[in-house]
Amino acid sequence: MNVIRKWRPRLSLVIGLVCVLLVALPVLALVSARLTANQFVREIERSLLAQAAIYAEAYALSYATLAPAPAQGQIVSEAQRARLDAKYHPVEPKLTADADEILPPRPDGLPTPDALDFPYAEISGALQTLAIQAQKTTLAGFLAVDAEGKTVAASSARAGLSFAHLPEIEAALGGEIVTSLRYRSDQTDLHPLNSISRDTRYRVFVTHPVIVGDRIVGAVHLSRTPVDLKKFLYLERHTLIRVGVIMLLGSFVVGFLLLRLISGPIRGVVRQSQDVVSGLKPVPSPLRRYGVRELAEMGQSVISMAQTLSNRSDAIKTYTAHVTHELKSPVTSIIGAAELLSTAEAMPQDKRDRLVANIHAEGVRMNELLGRLRELARATAAPDGQPGTLPNILEEVRREHPAIEIVDASDRNGAAPLSLEQGVILLSHMVQNAQQHGASKVTVAYDPEEQRLTVRDDGNGISSGNIARVAEPFFTTRREAGGTGMGLAIVAAILAQAGGALRARESDQGAHFEITFATP
């Protein structure tokens, strides 16, 4: 079954995208975290609200010192009084830098012939000095007006002007705290880069009422240009450049590591797999670098799989050669006998019977050989079922071979590293092999601690010259008696599947086999 062909990105492309995201994500986070003009505007708005409250209290204190019971100004409403009487009554910033919420530039003050009344004229000088001195630190523009909107003090010369027509002043003289965002009036004179390097296109305004007793005697009007995102980036350009360089270097290092530790080893494993498929290298050599543990394990799996496939291919070639050789003799005999029977017109009956018997015997031998080959293929399949115990296995073997005595000499029982089916096949072949070599008794013992199974019989035994060859496929000392040489080969194949090994030991009487299993 082939892999479905469809477009898939290369790992190098994925790594490149990861590196790009490493650079882009901080920028996206900067924007998504609201580090924009709105945040800067609200920071200035919050600062001006705090300053306006202090200026209003200073204004009110100066006024109350000279006129404790004011006659000017609007009377505070009950709702406003309730708010002022609360222990805490903060004003939260709410301005945004959306273009549709920015008002036109603030209109200039209108000339007024009326002089300041008492006590505004007396406190004007002190408030003016306070505003000018404070502006040196706060950088905020300051304007104080009386209950009629006339200028009492300002950070810049605005004497003799009235701002009663300004909506913010009008609302503040009615008892409201007003915040607004207005375009600067000097936009036409700005250099195109001015808004980036020096200033913003708009200013924040906060207007706060001044309350003495139960009357609103005036208002303070503060303004300041906020820092916007472009100006912030310009001011922090050196830091941002350093951060950008670090991010680029980090992205390069991450990309290099991913290519070296993942992409390169994966390409190497792919080349190894292609070499195995093409037959160029049936068993590839390990790569010099695998990068990470998982790829090393995958590489080892590829090598192990290639080794297994190579071994199986060699085994198939070997078995094919053996089967061809083993079947060649009976097939030749059958063909020869058939030719004699077909060409001989007058053949004695006894000779004809011998030829027919020979054909039958060779056919039986071929059928037995093919049956053993099927058993060998079945033995090399994956284990089936849970591990069996020796008593259960021997019970099945005794049922299949009632003519021979089978004794369990184990000191203690334990689960063998074989399934019941594997154990029955294995011991059946060993019992049958013993029976064919003249044994009448087979003794089996299993040591679960040593993971060792011993099988002894009282038959003819094995000569010292044949001990090393007993498990070779098609090796038999009973060929003339119909032996196929596959019984112990099947046993060895089963043990190889279960992680065990078969060894024949020299014995004074009968055959002695020792089976050891790898310790888990």
What does it look like?
This protein has 520 residues and is an alpha+beta fold. Helices cover 50% and strands 15% of the residues. Strands 1, 3, 4, 6, 7 and 8 form a six-stranded antiparallel β-sheet that branches. Strands 10-12-13-15-14 form a five-stranded mixed β-sheet, with helices on one face. A hairpin with a 6-residue loop joins strand 14 and strand 15. Helix 8 packs parallel to helix 9. It is rod-shaped. The two termini are 34 Å apart.
Short structural summary:
This protein has 520 residues and is α+β, with helices and mostly antiparallel strands.
Given the C-alpha coordinates, what overall shape results?
Answer: rod-shaped
- Give the DSSP E fraction (strand runs of 2 or more residues): 15-25%
Total beta-strand segments: 15
Helix share, percent = 40-55%
Which structural class do you get from the secondary structure elements?
alpha+beta
End-to-end span in angstroms?
34 Å
Order of helices and strands: HHEHEHEEEHEHEEHHHHEHEEHEEHEE
Largest sheet: 6 strands, antiparallel
Q: What would you report as the Rg, rounded to the nearest angstrom?
A: 51 Å
* Mean pLDDT across residues: 78
Task: Please report the number of helical segments.
Answer: 13
Uncertain ranges: 188-198
